[in-house]
Write a structure and sequence with these properties.
Low-confidence stretches: none
CATH architecture of the largest domain: 3-Layer(bba) Sandwich
Structural class: alpha/beta
CATH class of the largest domain: Alpha Beta
Bound molecules: flavin-adenine dinucleotide, adenosine monophosphate
Mean pLDDT: 97
Strand content: 15-25%
Number of strands: 21
Strand order of the largest sheet: 1-2-3-4-5
Distance between the termini: 76 Å
Amino acid sequence: MSQKSHFDLIVIGAGPAGYVAAIRAALCGLNVACIDKWLDSDNNPVLGGTCLNVGCIPSKALLDTSQRFYDLQHHSDAHGIKAQSAQIDVHTMMERKNKIIQQLTSGISGLFKGNKVSPLFGTGQLLADKKVAFTPHNGKTETLTAEHIILATGSVPTQIPPLPIHDDLVVDSTGALAFDTVPKRMGVIGAGVIGLELGSVWKRLGAEVVVIEALPDFLPAMDKQIAKESLKILSGQGLDIRLGCKVTSSKIDGDTVVVVYENDGKEVSETFDRVVVAVGRRPYTHGVLADDCGVKTDECGFIIVDEYCATNVPHVYAVGDVVRGPMLAHKGSEEGIMVVERIVGKQPTLNYDCIPSIIYTHPEIAAVGKTEHELKSAGVPYKTGSFPFAASGRALAADDAHGLVKLIAHAETDRILGGHIVGPNAADLIQQVAIAIEFQGSAEDLTLMVFGHPTFSEAVHEAALALHNHAIHIINRKTK
Ligand code: FAD
Ligand code: AMP
């Protein structure tokens, strides 16, 4: 039996949505338990969920290693560095990644300890009447009670019937984060965030990579100009991105996989030695909701919540990937914090219109706020201003001058409504636009600020200046 059986708050799931909620609740003085069933490859319980174990962090670790390797091979000559004979040791790369995961997951254990959150390792299930069934790993089920319960059980990779997961040959994102050698020819199904990031990792390390995407448009949710520029840059790096190609069947042939897809009514088949299925993720509620718990899910399996993440059952909330909205770690964490603060009587809200989304290719692709397309559809008058990194002294000095910053502002009020960036450090630059949107800033506010020189940030400044046709380092559309 666990020591206590009644808590102010029980959180089921210790990913970035659940563990952050648990820590915030403890900081608010609540008596908190956080249940998680994740086991690492040695069968040890670990906290951190998808993000730390098989998501954000390991993918960024491999992206950083592979970018260093790629730069040595392709960008060192011009600097006078002779490094073309660099070699990659995949085992060491994976060990480094695993060490980072271990450091961060044990860091959360330390934070739980320091904040007096009780970690409960095993499976949780929501019962009726504010009760939770907790089954420890290798233990007997016990019933816990709580004043409030947060469900944060996350998501898992989606699979497609024509291409089932098969040993090491056809894998999902988790498998692609743990290859022991560089594939010769790798297929990636899905040109979304995860497909592009993992495709980039193995391409940079030497694989021939073909990305097969069912939709005719590249990154259709992104700003069209940024998507077009991103496609040009990534294709230029050798990623073979095939749009409008829907996978219809596959066959294992010895140690290769034959993938068949449809394009323009024609059937095409390609042979790969590894295939990564990256067609999205689905909410995970398997075994989480007892039949009589009362919590409703929608037709896609998401737990239904209101704008404050409350379910239809009083005192039961759900946050993160298991509810509507973008499947992003920071979105889940902020939802967790919002719920806890509302439980203790505060009134925070979450601005779902201001959540940055980032693709960690090189260069990075990032967006926040509205796209031109959305504003046009809503009949909102707007203006745009952009600045290419090719005109940035810092970007040129860094030999990293692809892409642009594009800002969108209201045509009449000048208020910043959106930012779209493909370029160096886009992941960090986009936060400057997010701050401007959140503070209801105008393009003029950005133009009046002093930006350090030389910095990548100056491209944000110049894009704001361009909105007023005052950019200094490019020729403006019209000059007055
Ligand atoms: P999860 O992180 O999935 O955690 C859910 C937890 O609940 C798990 O630990 C699971 O064990 C536990 N659980 C489930 N059911 C039960 C149960 N019944 N009992 C006990 N425990 C249970 N997002 C970003 O913002 N930036 C990125 O760069 C990024 N990169 C990614 C790269 C990859 C390859 C992948 C796969 C995802 C990436 N994501 C990224 C998405 C991000 O990982 C998720 O949005 C995030 O992890 C969701 O957090 P969560 O807490 O809702 O769920
Ligand atoms: P994301 O949800 O951002 O991870 O992107 C997943 C991508 O996979 C989407 O762009 C889908 O269009 C794509 N996709 C889904 N099913 C298939 C399929 N059968 N063949 C090719 N691409 C697919």
